[in-house]
UniProtKB/TrEMBL annotation, chain A:
Cofactor remark from the record: Binds 1 [2Fe-2S] cluster per subunit.
InterPro entries on file: Rieske_2Fe-2S (IPR017941), Rieske_2Fe-2S_sf (IPR036922), Rieske_Fe-S_prot (IPR014349), Rieske_Fe-S_prot_C (IPR005805), TAT_signal (IPR006311), Ubiq_cytC_Rdtase_Fe-S_su_TAT (IPR019470), Ubiquinol_cyt_c_Rdtase_Fe-S-su (IPR006317)
Keywords recorded for this protein, A-Z: 2Fe-2S, Cell membrane, Disulfide bond, Electron transport, Iron, Iron-sulfur, Membrane, Metal-binding, Translocase, Transmembrane, Transmembrane helix, Transport
Catalysed reactions listed for this entry: a quinol + 2 Fe(III)-[cytochrome c](out) = a quinone + 2 Fe(II)-[cytochrome c](out) + 2 H(+)(out)
NCBIfam families per record: Rieske_proteo
Record-given protein name: Ubiquinol-cytochrome c reductase iron-sulfur subunit
Other remarks on this protein: The Rieske protein is a high potential 2Fe-2S protein.
Chief place of localization: membrane
Statement: the UniProt record of this protein carries the keyword Chloroplast: no
SUPFAM superfamilies xref list: ISP domain
TrEMBL record, chain B:
Domain Cytochrome b/b6 C-terminal region profile, residue spans: 230-417
Cofactor binding notes: Binds 2 heme groups non-covalently.
Alphabetized UniProt keyword annotations: Electron transport, Heme, Iron, Membrane, Metal-binding, Respiratory chain, Transmembrane, Transmembrane helix, Transport
Topology in the lipid bilayer: Multi-pass membrane protein
Name of this protein: Cytochrome b
Annotated transmembrane regions: 42-69, 90-111, 126-148, 160-179, 199-219, 240-265, 308-327, 343-363, 383-406
Residue ranges constituting the Cytochrome b/b6 N-terminal region profile domain according to the UniProt record: 14-224
Organism of origin: Brevundimonas intermedia
Length: 178, 442
């Protein structure tokens, strides 16, 4: 070919021809990545699902010994009004669960009888059954995790206690979650 | 085999014209005349059955997609509409749903056939590995499809399976949100699962083409497990068509009988009743159980008392299959001539079925009712939890310890030099049945 004579032999490594090959290859990889990213990113949450809702809940709707399940950000939240016996039991047990927590660390002071937790099992996300299992709290039917009446994991494959969401008391009988 | 020479001779003018431009008829004819070992038994018919299953799922699936609405507000109702209003819709839906179960029955038998007869051993490793990819894609596709009716099992199955990915440290959570398209399983999830459930069967189809290509390059294995010497090709092989097309066809008819019994008389026997309840994101059903064909892997997940550990164990149970050709140290392919390994294989068979059985039981339930037992660590020894752990241990021991060890230690039985030998020298030898070229003798 005519061009071969134009390239001086032993011009160094990489030579000019190598350079153009490497540059073209790099450009192709870069372009590929730029095309791939929007195709991947389109599966991340869309703008209409990103809106983080906060909800208010009237605690007078819960009777003693009862649990109300409310939907918050697509997930269930348990609001449980614990009986004195249940409360007594979880307080005297001290710090248990994973991580070890006392009941006081999981409730707001002055409102210990109400437990507010996200009702998703920390194993693979099923909703535990109320008042079931070996510890008087919840039992998850999917893979058999047991929680106590403070929502702490006591037995089974779940790695963590039921999550306590960010919430605050806006009055004596109302909470705002989120 | 790869050295199989083309025997196609174009006859008509159209064939001659086409053959120099696009030799597609030659390709098909060579494919159908492939020399195939004469001694294949009925365990070798599941490949054809699986091809039928894939086509059934694709055709009924495309039809169902014409009537199904992938939106949380309408999905469940649109499936009920298919059942009640679409002409023959109930039939199409039941064929598709039971077709998935039939697909898995056939694939498990196909895989066990390969395991028993050493069909994964050199030179057939690529056939086996592509097969494992197909199996994995099948599980993913079946899972995505099960989500679409948006019943209770659909929803909670999706919740649990996507959470498996969330168990990966550090990167798990962002991938989980990416997969779901939001903080929880919702419409975005259902919508994309529909799209992917449509796509993956075509990926499977592509892998099946590679699977067959690899099969035709390395050649069929056979129950004796020996490579057929080139000079024995005429004596020990038959052309695929018409001998094996007809044999496969007969097996397919028997298989379709079983399929039809389920579709017409027991269409819901293999499904779960709770999937006739619309999805409720606030309540997990008390009797949640995966589809039967996932139960063994579900049992393995549940046997491990740790979230990430369980996920790793479950994926390893499939992952170990990929390296199977290198775990088996034996030079002998067929377990017909490996009595020790054969015993371990049949234990494996019982354990596999046992794992599936355990997956359907509550982990704390006693195996022997009315018997106390002893508590060991986190569970009673007389409970499905510990039985599952025992089976899980054997599952992994079989591949990782027994297979490499027995392969080195055992003394195999004498292996015949040709596939005709066991027939011709056995008690029921009938030399008249072994003409040189049986396909040319009417």
């Amino acid at each position: 070919m005519a061009e071969t004579g134009v390239i001086p032999e032993g011009e160094g490594d990489p030579n000019r021809r190598d350079f153009i090959h490497i540059a073209a290859g790099a450009a192709a990889v870069g372009a590929g990545a730029m095309i791939a990213w929007p195709l991947i990113n389109q599966m991340n949450p869309a703008a209409d699902t990103l809106a983080l809702a906060s909800i208010e809940f009237d605690l007078t709707k819960v009777q003693e010994g009862q649990q109300v399940v409310i939907k918050w950000q697509g997930k269930p939240v348990f609001v449980r009004y614990r009986t004195p016996a249940e409360l007594q039991k979880v307080v005297t047990e001290g710090a248990v669960g994973s991580p070890p927590q006392t009941d006081a660390e999981r409730t707001k002071s002055g409102h210990e009888k109400y437990l507010v937790v996200v009702g998703s099992c920390t194993h693979l996300g099923c909703v535990p059954t109320f008042n079931a299992g070996d510890y008087g709290g919840w039992f998850c039917p999917c893979h058999g995790s047991h929680y106590d009446a403070s929502g702490r994991i006591r037995k089974g494959p779940a790695p963590l206690n039921l999550i306590v969401p960010d919430y605050e008391y806006t009055s004596d009988t109302r909470v705002r979650i989120g | 085999m790869s050295e199989h020479e083309s025997t196609y001779v174009p006859k008509t003018g159209v064939e001659k014209w086409l053959d120099t431009r696009l030799p597609i008829i030659r390709f098909g004819a060579d494919y159908m005349s492939l020399p195939t070992p004469r001694n294949l038994n009925y365990w070798w018919t599941f490949g054809g059955i699986l091809a039928l299953c894939l086509m059934t799922q694709i055709v009924t699936g495309i039809v169902l997609a014409m009537h199904y609405t992938p939106h949380v507000d309408m999905a469940f109702a649109s499936v009920e509409r298919i059942m009640r209003d679409v002409n023959g819709g109930w039939l199409i839906r039941y064929v598709h749903a039971n077709g998935a179960s039939m697909f898995f029955i056939a694939v498990y038998l196909h895989m066990l056939r390969g395991l028993y007869y050493g069909s994964y051993k050199a030179p057939r490793e690529m056939i086996w590995i592509i097969g494992c990819v197909i199996f994995f894609l099948m599980i993913a596709t079946a899972f995505l499809g099960y989500v679409l009716p948006w019943g209770q099992m659909s929803f909670w199955g999706a919740e649990v399976i996507t959470n498996l990915i969330g168990a990966i440290p550090v990167i798990g959570e962002p991938i989980l949100i990416w997969l779901r398209g939001g903080p929880a399983i919702d419409n975005a999830t259902l919508n994309r699962f529909f799209s992917l459930h449509y796509l993956l069967p075509f990926a499977i189809l592509g892998c099946v083409v590679l699977h067959l290509w690899a099969l035709h390059s390395a050649g069929q294995n056979n129950p004796v497990g020996i490579l057929i010497p080139k000079d024995r090709t005429k004596k020990d092989m038959l052309p695929f068509h018409p001998y094996f097309t007809l044999k496969d066809g007969f097996a397919i008819i028997l298989f379709l009988l079983l399929f039809a019994i389920f579709v017409f008389y027991q269409p819901n026997a293999l499904g779960h009743a709770d999937n006739y309840i619309p999805a409720n994101p606030l309540q997990t059903p008390a009797h949640i159980v995966p589809e039967w064909y996932m139960l063994p892997f579900y049992a393995i997940l549940r046997a491990i008392p740790d979230k990430f550990g369980g996920v790793v164990a479950m994926f390893s149970a499939i992952g170990v299959l990929f390296v199977l050709p290198w775990l088996d140290t034996s030079k002998v392919r067929s377990m017909r001539y490996r009595p020790t390994m054969r015993s371990f294989f049949f234990i494996f068979l019982v354990v596999g079925v046992g794992l599936g059985w355990c997956g359907g039981q509550l982990p704390d339930a006693p195996v022997i009712p009315g018997f106390g037992g002893v508590v060991l660590l986190d569970g009673n020894l007389n409970s499905y939890l510990w039985l599952t752990r025992l089976f899980t241990a054997y599952y992994f021991l079989f591949f990782l310890v027994i297979m490499p060890f027995v392969g080195l230690k055992e003394t195999p039985l004498p292996i015949p030099a040709t596939i005709s030998e066991p027939v011709l020298t056995g008690a029921d030898a009938m030399p008249a049945l072994a003409p040189a070229s049986p396909e040319k003798k009417g």
